[in-house]
Write a structure and sequence with these properties.
The structure holds two protein chains of two kinds.
Chain A lengths: L1 E2 L2 E4 L3 H12 L4 E4 L28 H6 L11 E4 L1 E3 L7 E4 L2 E4 L8 H23 L13 H19 L2 H11 L3 H8 L4 H11 L11 H8 L6 E4 L3 H14 L3 E3 L4 E7 L2 E7 L4 E3 L2 E4 L3 H8 L6 H9 L6 E8 L16 E4 L3 H12 L8 E5 L12 E7 L11 H16 L5 H4 E7 L1 H8 L35 E3 L13 H14 L1
Parallel strand pairs in A: 1-12, 2-3, 2-13, 3-9, 5-15, 13-19
Antiparallel strand pairs in A: 4-8, 5-6, 6-7, 10-11, 11-12, 14-17, 14-18, 15-16, 16-17
Helix pairs in contact in A: 1-9, 1-16, 3-4, 3-8, 6-7, 7-8, 7-12
Chain B lengths: L16 H7 L4 E5 L2 E6 L3 H10 L1 E5 L4 E6 L3 H8 L12 E7 L5 E11 L2 E6 L4 H8 L5 E4 L4 E7 L3 H7 L12 E5 L2 E4 L8 E7 L3 H12 L4 E3 L2 H11 L42 H7 L5 E8 L9 E4 L3 E12 L4 E9 L10 E9 L2 E12 L18
Classes of the chains: A alpha/beta, B alpha+beta.
Chain lengths: 514, 392
């Protein structure tokens, strides 16, 4: 039997960050990833293309600093992409930061209103970041006099001061908007159309929610935490994963792929290690689980959890609605009305807020959208390290619990719907497709172990955020028997390839060990 | 919900309601889980003394009964219950308690080990939803048998003789043994009186016939039908607790901290920290050394029952209250169960007092009665445990 101090289950970004930080803190660490490739939902395809997640929004500088990268910067060359909201009518909108123009370079009629809204969302995002980055508030066992308690008080105080510093009108607007729906907030400032649709689509990406659902303003602000700009790393997602895995390995962590954990071992209400499907036993004092609380509970055995705790786990909403479609093309497609130099941008097909809501509606009834919302990128156009003619698309809504199940016929139908939709802005595109890969939520769940194949591991809704993420009572990474921790995107502060859940989980595990 | 079926508005007849009606001269009924149950049939004294000196028959069918079956039934129950149910062998019955995640008592009850992977839980509170929650993740099936299985409690020194006369005697049946004596009849040597006694379990529709069979057999052995009031005296004498009276089931409370831990109920012996995880174990580990109060068995000075009395330390400081109190005709003592705050419950006894109100011909008065804590039950006769049992 091998013995380590910490086992990390799942080699996605958060799992790798946790493993690397634990190893850097002098712990002996073993990370076990069930699939042959590291990266989880950020794992690259065999040709280096983005298989699932394809953009970075909120990659945390704090994680880079703690991982010990030189200068506290990610050792990645990132290309910030402009966003293009495609219009079937041809009047595509280009957004660079707070600046909105039309594709031909002329100013957008609502550029000023958009800049105001963008500025507000970014300011609010920066304010909420104080809450988002550290472990969620609460659990002040040591009181305000302990170092940890003091830090927490200062952090909360900063949020409070930040609120006051906004001035009364904006504070009122913030508190009014925070819990409301994106649809209302956006249409208060903008006329419905591609520009409004872009924001609406960003508010609900990966969520089982439409822009009219309550709490979508919060998820939109969350996305704006670092300004809302989307980037692709040079060399693709694989470069990011390699960088973190490199730190983990250099610090002495054992990182294994193709190693599926069969059981988490518990003795005397304390985690004692894991047993893999091949029968290998690895002894450990703590086990950190990426795929989520339900998985941790099933691996350790329900009997080690209180009944109320399993009740809350059952209630965690993780119903994946986003499918990933990867298209191999025989050349660069054309989009009428869009200059060729913008083909490498983040292309969003969400003609209006209303269209996003209409796309969401069928998913409530376990059906796929007839006119889905699509976010597509062709990273090969801006990065030589990635295949040239590859279009990577997140397609919403394709619910995990599709009526009748995800058969091959259902996947073919989703592909056809997606190609038809894309053809509305790029008529020549379908003819250029030489191969297509349709990764529906059931496949995401199967490949990564993430419940419901949910893009963020658990719905980013107000009742599943902060100390309530993924559920009340397990919001501070520890759950069940001693030594068991959550370290994936289902834990605070959630998904979007930030790495913060892994960082906070590693800290919680280190604190518990000391 | 139709008005006629709303248990708050109307009571429904139990399986032996016509037999009870025939015996009821007081016409005193109360609602027990929606059923019309007798509080008194004849007179409390007659019924009580029949139970302590002869034999008494009490319908316990309104109790909630749940069947737990399946390959993981043992594991599921051990995670739910505070004690190690592995120690309750097949064909045995165990008294058990279960707690919520904060270590507060949900209810107490008896667990019948019917066979391999087959259990029945008998308890006072509705428990189906909780059992289903507890069963999630385990390969077990939960069935509510509350309205399918009837129970008759036959208690008292001649109860074995009554069974024998009815052709149901099992002389080698030990306390807490469970026997299937006929296809549709199980007998457990259990009860709520602290005396020799049995509980007979049969399908709902056959309860009437069983009643008649026992009634005929008991004619010359002093068998009497009894109501709840007589039973309540007996259970206080035996030191048994009642949900809603001696503790508030935590699922029925809305105010914070109204729950009680097993340690506060002086039920330490029903909690096994060595058996592995069970619901509330982590909280109970933290709370085991710091009970806020303790349930004490106390002897009350004088003869006026200390019903609803507040408890004082040194006659001045209010430190608790009486939950159940009665004059015990058998022990010839004024007895009570009382929650007393720590540390007063732990100190050398002798300085605890109950404030008792008396009304004599329209004049109210108040006096302090000294409480003497006791270690054992007020009534605990050897005949309750003798095997084979005596016939008289």
């Amino acid at each position: 039997m091998t013995r380590v101090t910490h086992v990390v289950i799942g080699g996605g970004l958060n799992g790798l960050v946790a493993a690397a930080l634990l190893a850097r803190a002098g712990k002996s660490v073993c990370l076990l990833e069930q699939s042959p490739t590291l990266g989880g939902m950020a794992a690259p395809g065999p040709d280096g293309s983005a298989r699932m997640a394809h953009l970075l929004y909120n990659l945390s500088p704090r994680v880079a600093r703690d991982l010990g990268f030189a200068g506290g910067r990610w050792p990645l060359s990132m290309t910030e992409l402009p966003s293009v909201s495609l219009s079937p009518e041809g009047a595509h909108v280009v957004v660079r930061g707070a600046r909105a123009t039309l594709a031909d370079g002329t100013p957008h009629a609502q550029a000023a209103a958009f800049a105001t809204l963008h500025g507000r969302l970014t300011r609010w995002g920066a304010l909420l970041r104080h809450l988002a980055e550290a472990a969620p508030p609460g659990g002040l066992d040591g009181g305000a006099l302990s170092m940890q308690g003091l830090r927490q008080m200062i952090r909360l105080g900063r949020v409070g001061l930040g609120l006051r510093g906004m001035g009364k009108p904006e504070m009122r607007a913030f508190l009014q908007a925070l819990l409301s729906n994106a649809h209302d907030l956006i249409l208060d400032e903008l006329v419905d159309g591609p520009l409004a649709g872009l924001l609406a689509a960003d508010a609900v990406r990966g969520a089982a929610a439409g822009p009219r659902s309550p709490g979508t303003v919060f998820s939109l602000i969350y996305r704006m935490g670092h300004g809302g700009a989307a980037s692709v790393p040079k060399g693709g997602m694989g470069a990011l994963i390699d960088a973190v895995a490199g730190v983990a390995r250099a610090a002495g962590a054992r990182v294994e792929t193709g190693a599926k954990v069969a059981r988490i071992l518990v003795e005397g209400d304390r985690v004692t290690g894991v047993e893999t499907e091949t029968g290998e036993t690895i002894g450990a004092k703590a086990v950190l689980v990426s795929p989520g609380a339900q998985v941790a509970c099933a691996l350790a055995g329900h009997r080690h959890f209180d009944i109320e705790a399993t009740n809350r786990l059952r209630g965690i909403r993780a119903r994946g609605t986003a499918a990933k479609i990867n298209l191999t093309l025989d050349g660069t497609p054309e989009i009428p009305g869009l200059p060729a130099d913008l083909l490498g941008a983040r292309l969003v097909l969400a003609p209006s807020t209303e269209a996003v809501e209409l796309a969401f509606n069928p998913s409530k009834y376990r059906r796929m959208s007839d006119a889905p919302v699509i976010e597509a990128v062709m990273p090969g156009l801006t990065d030589d390290g990635q295949p040239k003619a590859h279009l990577s698309a997140i397609v919403q809504y394709a619910p995990h619990d599709l009526e009748g199940g995800w058969s091959d016929a259902a996947r073919d139908r989703l592909l056809k719907i997606t190609l038809d939709r894309l053809a509305q802005v790029a008529p020549g595109l379908p003819a250029r497709v030489t191969a297509a890969e349709v990764i529906t939520p059931d496949r995401i769940a199967g490949e990564t172990g993430v419940p419901g194949g949910h893009w963020h591991h658990a719905e980013m809704a107000l009742d599943q955020l902060l100390a309530l993420r993924p559920a009340n009572g397990i919001g501070r990474y520890a759950l069940g028997p001693k030594g068991l921790f959550l370290c994936g995107a289902s834990a605070h502060p959630g998904g979007d390839l930030m790495g913060l859940a892994g960082l906070n989980a590693a800290r919680a595990a280190l604190e518990a060990a000391s | 919900m139709s008005i006629t079926h709303d248990p708050r508005l109307a009571l429904i007849p139990g399986p032996v309601h016509d037999r009870l009606t025939a015996q009821s001269r007081k016409l005193g009924w109360y609602g027990w889980a929606g059923y019309a149950a007798p509080s008194v049939l004849d007179s409390v004294e007659f019924e009580y003394f029949a139970m302590r000196n002869q034999a008494a028959l009490f319908d316990v069918s309104p109790m909630h009964k749940y069947r737990i079956r399946g390959p993981q039934a043992d594991a599921m129950l051990n995670r739910m219950m505070c004690r190690d149910i592995g120690k309750i062998r097949e064909g045995r019955v165990g008294y058990t308690i279960w707690c919520d995640e904060e270590g507060f008592l949900i209810d107490d009850g008896t667990l019948f080990h019917l066979g391999a992977d087959d259990w029945r839980l008998c308890c006072q509170e509705p428990m189906l939803a909780w059992l289903q929650d507890a069963a999630w993740g385990f390969d077990v099936a939960i069935e509510d048998e509350s309205h399918a299985v009837a129970g008759l409690s036959l208690q008292g020194p001649t109860s074995f003789a009554v069974l024998e006369a009815a052709g149901l005697g099992q002389p080698d049946q030990k306390p807490f043994d469970l026997r299937r004596v006929e296809d549709d009849l199980m007998i457990s040597r259990t009860g709520f009186t602290g005396d020799l006694g049995y509980e007979l379990w049969t399908p709902w529709a056959q309860a009437g016939a069983l009643w008649d069979r026992l009634w005929a057999a008991g004619a010359h052995l002093g068998l009497r039908a009894i109501g709840y009031e007589a039973m309540n005296i007996a259970r206080i004498e035996a030191g048994f607790v009642t949900a809603g009276v001696d503790f508030q089931p935590i699922h029925g409370t809305e105010r914070l901290h109204r729950g009680l831990t097993p340690f506060e109920m002086s039920m330490d012996w029903l909690v096994d920290f060595d058996k592995g995880h069970f619901n509330g174990r982590r909280a109970l580990l933290a709370k085991r050394r710091s009970p806020r109060s303790r349930l004490l068995k106390v002897d009350v000075e004088g003869f006026k029952p200390a019903r609803d009395a507040l408890v004082y330390h040194n006659r001045r400081r209010e430190v608790g209250h009486v939950t159940s109190a009665v004059w015990s005709p058998t022990a010839k003592r004024n007895i009570a169960l009382a929650h007393v705050a720590t540390p007063y419950a732990d100190r050398v006894p002798g300085n605890l007092w109950a404030e008792i109100y008396t009304a004599e011909e329209g004049r109210w008065d108040r006096r302090m009665a000294r409480l003497t804590p006791l270690k054992t039950a007020f009534f605990r006769p050897d005949r309750a445990r003798a095997t084979p049992p005596a016939r008289h």
